[in-house]
Amino acid sequence: MNTMKNGYVQEHYAPMPTKATLFWRNFAPWQLIRFIILNLRILRIVVKGHS
């Protein structure tokens, strides 16, 4: 027996990002910093693999 009356409730969807989250996702200087950090991490893994 199915006890659920409404299958389309908010709990079934992904949470909406806050205004602060949306700001940091779209803030170009922050994205540049994160890009550099990610590249340094990848570079470190590659260099360690070649030694």
| Total of helices | 2
In helices, the fraction of residues equals: 55-70%
**Can you tell me the residue ranges where pLDDT is under 50 for at least 5 consecutive residues?**
none
- Spatial separation of the terminal alpha carbons: 62 Å
Number of strands: 0
- Return the string of H and E elements: HH
Amount of beta strand: under 5%
In round numbers, the mean pLDDT is 87
Radius of gyration: 21 Å
Q: Structural class, from helix and strand content?
A: mainly alpha
- Biggest sheet architecture: none
Give the overall shape. Answer: elongated
Describe this structure in words.
There is one protein chain. The chain has about 50 residues and is mainly α. It is about 60% helix and about 0% strand. The protein has two helices and no strands. The chain is elongated and about 60 Å long. The mean pLDDT is about 85.
Helix/strand layout:
Layout: H1 19-26, H2 28-49
Write a brief structural summary.
Helix content is 59%, strand content 0%. It contains 2 helices and no strands.
Fill in the keyword field for this structure.
51 residues; mainly alpha; 2 helices
